[in-house]
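Request:
You are asked to prepare a plain-text protein record giving the amino acid sequence and the backbone structure tokens, at your earliest convenience.
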Amino acid sequence: MWDIMTNAVSDLVGGDLSQKPLPVGQIAARACLVYLMGIILVRLGKSRMLSRATPLDILLGFILGSL
């Protein structure tokens, strides 16, 4: 069961050491996973700064800050 799940995830988002460029679908899947994990982390955070802003505000702040 675990092997089936890991193979499915690997097919969806690609491997770590790919020799060829990733297809657009895998790039989009990775972006969606990172966005969803960010939303989950912001929702779980209980600090005052996070409670006043919406999750989208926090994620956009991280994205713009990383540029």
User: Anything to note?
Assistant: The mean pLDDT is 77.
